[in-house]
Write a structure and sequence with these properties.
With 224 residues, the protein is an alpha+beta fold. The protein is 26% helix and 27% strand. Helix 2 packs across helix 3 and helix 3 runs antiparallel to helix 4. The mean pLDDT is 83. It binds zinc ion (ZN). It comes from Photobacterium sanctipauli.
Length: 224
């Protein structure tokens, strides 16, 4: 029984299986799937289904030999994301804390920038993966909060370590949270509990309450 409670929807998984997601979004899904046995199974089912649709739609045009061969290929163990152990960075450091990096990110480890400090005991390290959207590690120290904000686009958050909570729930390692411009939230950590997340933003955050609205020019900081 998995402890992961928040998952990507079928549509996103299907797009991932079809290779239709941006590289950055695919990293987010791959990292989630690594942490979530439930979605690993769902993805396998989708891939099997896609494969069988392909075989049946093409079967009129191909010879039985070829069809048998294709079925044989598709019945092979699908490639897993578990790589052969080579010399590579498997952790991300923050001060003297080491956090395990998901395999999906290990090959991008040289693209992880230095940590910078944001207001509210938050630290951020950018991951350069190309494309329009911005990927960041966000580290929230214990007992810290991000100002209330909405999203002008989509925000995907994947918890890697520790936990945080907002008005909708508590999020733990593996949880995959998709926020759109309809959501408004105040992510917080509890006392004695820090949190490391990987986030993907496709537009700057928009801070909505009180003094935090003054941060709006500043929200570009989250989006670099
Ligand atoms: Zn899942």
């Amino acid at each position: 029984m998995s402890n992961v409670h928040f998952h990507p929807n079928d549509d996103i998984l299907l797009q991932h299986a079809c290779g239709d997601l941006s590289p950055a979004s695919s990293i987010m899904i791959s990292a989630h799937v690594e942490l979530c046995p439930h979605c690993r199974q769902r993805l396998e089912d989708i891939e099997q289904h896609q494969a069988s649709v392909m075989v049946s739609s093409e079967s009129e045009d191909i010879t039985p030999d070829l069809q048998a061969m294709m079925q044989h290929i598709m019945s092979q163990e699908t490639e897993t994301s578990t790589p052969v152990e080579t010399e590579k960075t498997t952790t991300i450091m923050l001060g003297d804390k080491a956090f395990h990096l998901p395999h999906a990110l290990q090959r991008h480890s040289e693209n992880i920038g230095p940590w910078s400090r944001l207001p509210g005991n938050i630290k951020r390290a950018q991951v350069t993966v190309g494309g329009q959207s911005k990927m960041n590690f966000i580290y929230m120290d214990s007992d810290s909060a991000l100002p209330e904000h909405t999203h002008q686009g989509n925000e995907i958050t994947l918890v890697l370590a520790g936990e945080f909570y907002d008005e909708q729930g508590t999020y733990r390692p593996g949880d995959f949270i998709l926020q759109t411009d309809e959501h408004k939230h105040v992510p917080k950590t509890r006392e004695g509990q820090d949190c490391l997340c990987l986030t993907l933003l496709d537009a700057p955050l928009h801070f909505t309450s009180g003094l935090a609205t003054l941060l709006n020019p500043f929200s570009q900081l989250f989006f670099r």
